[in-house]
């Protein structure tokens, strides 16, 4: 922590602060989910909210995902603004009907007469050896369905601003936070995710990617924890005269295509680094967007994609590291593209 004007927060603390400020501002905002109350969220995203707002507005739920996701959707339709946490994205499958067929579609099916200001939060990602059922990202599954906004912050500043933006949105927002950048002391994390966060309330708009590092030789599009792995690789490559432009997408829906295309038009090379699965996912979508605009980007080499291999995430640390792209994989891929 620094002084008041330059304090730093972990992502977990920033998310919690964003929720608290909106709960203070709007009495219709409430939190529900698995271990969100006394425990403060298994990854710290709701820390301190129970003591501040009480059990009527910060509610632990049974492990019955269909029930509490459905309850949140119904509450939103009646004018409330629920923030609902499902502990791991891997278990969204048990309540997919509520997400795909109700939360995502009811605004459209009502002709716009129903608003659904639901924020659905969950933890994503591997890197801490929790095996196949607790280590996936899966955001591409939900980006594929019309009606859902998909938010994936990489740092504390964005995490707070995008949480506030999500709560104020009248559409359902899925908010994915990576365990490895939450700043928890009991697990290793990328310290670059802990950033300056203003005390006052602010928003970060959706659909605005950020160029977090400028470069002229290659565009690297990424998001979430992979931003930090990419930055490590870019710093190493800079010493060899290779300038990597790193784009943090921030949101998948809406997707900022213009920032991607403008960068590739400058560098003429594209690499996508993603912690979701390779096949039928985000990396292929980004590649397709560029392929559909070849007349304006003039690629000098084929697009390269780095993503999770099409296997369940292994428990074994060496095998997990082999399945999920690492900084060294990004570095080696870019060197090959520059050869």
Describe the structure.
- With 339 residues, this protein is α/β, with parallel strands linked by helices.
- The protein has 2 domains: 4-196, Thiamin diphosphate (ThDP)-binding fold, Pyr/PP domains (Rossmann fold, 3-Layer(aba) Sandwich), CATH 3.40.50.970; 210-338, Rossmann fold.
- 35% of the residues lie in helices and 19% in strands.
- It has 13 helices and 14 strands.
- The protein has helices spanning 11-25, 49-53, 65-77, 96-103, 106-109, 139-143, 156-168, 226-238, 257-267, 282-291, 294-297, 317-323, 327-338; strands spanning 8-9, 29-33, 58-60, 81-88, 119-124, 149-151, 173-178, 195-196, 210-213, 218-222, 244-248, 251-253, 270-277, 304-308.
- β2, α2 and β3 (58-60) form a beta-alpha-beta unit.
CATH topology description of the largest domain: Rossmann fold
* Low-pLDDT ranges: none
Name the CATH homologous superfamily of the largest domain: Thiamin diphosphate (ThDP)-binding fold, Pyr/PP domains
Q: How many strands?
A: 14
- What strand order characterises the main sheet? 3-2-4-5-7-6-12
CATH architecture field of the largest domain: 3-Layer(aba) Sandwich
Radius of gyration: 20 Å
Organism: marine metagenome
Keywords: Oxidoreductase, Thiamine pyrophosphate
Cofactor: thiamine diphosphate
GO molecular function, one term: oxidoreductase activity
Please outline what is shown here.
The protein has two domains: 4-196, Thiamin diphosphate (ThDP)-binding fold, Pyr/PP domains (Rossmann fold); 210-338, Rossmann fold. Helix content is 35%, strand content 19%. The chain contains 13 helices and 14 strands.
């Amino acid at each position: 922590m620094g002084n008041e004007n330059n304090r730093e927060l972990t992502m977990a603390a920033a998310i919690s602060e964003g929720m608290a400020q909106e709960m203070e501002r709007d009495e219709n905002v409430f939190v529900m989910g698995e271990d969100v109350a006394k425990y403060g969220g298994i990854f710290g995203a709701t820390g301190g909210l129970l003591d501040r707002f009480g059990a009527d507005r910060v509610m632990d739920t049974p492990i019955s995902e269909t029930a509490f996701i459905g309850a949140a959707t119904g509450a939103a339709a009646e004018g409330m603004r629920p923030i609902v946490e499902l502990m791991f994205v891997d278990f969204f499958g048990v309540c997919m009907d509520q997400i795909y067929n109700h939360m995502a579609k009811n605004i459209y099916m009502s002709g716009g007469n129903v608003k659904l200001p639901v924020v659905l939060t969950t933890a994503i990602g591997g890197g801490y050896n929790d095996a196949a059922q607790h280590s996936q990202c899966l955001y591409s599954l939900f980006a594929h369905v019309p009606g859902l906004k998909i938010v994936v912050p990489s740092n504390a500043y964005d995490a707070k601003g995008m949480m506030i933006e999500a709560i104020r949105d009248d559409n359902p927002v899925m908010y994915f936070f990576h365990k490895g950048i939450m700043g928890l002391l009991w697990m290793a994390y990328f310290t670059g995710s802990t950033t300056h966060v203003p005390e006052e309330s602010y928003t970060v708009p959706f659909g605005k990617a950020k160029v977090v590092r400028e470069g002229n030789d290659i565009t690297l599009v990424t998001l979430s924890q992979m931003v930090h792995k990419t930055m490590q690789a870019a710093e190493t490559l800079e010493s060899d005269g290779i300038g990597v432009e790193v784009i943090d997408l921030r949101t998948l829906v809406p997707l900022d295509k213009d920032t991607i295309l403008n960068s590739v038009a400058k560098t003429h090379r594209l690499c996508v680094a993603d912690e979701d699965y390779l096949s039928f996912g985000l990396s292929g979508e980004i590649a397709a967007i560029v392929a559909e605009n070849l007349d304006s980007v003039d690629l000098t080499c084929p697009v390269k994609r780095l993503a999770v291999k099409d296997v369940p995430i292994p428990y074994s640390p060496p095998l997990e590291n082999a399945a999920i792209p690492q900084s060294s994989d990004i570095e080696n891929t870019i060197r090959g593209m520059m050869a």
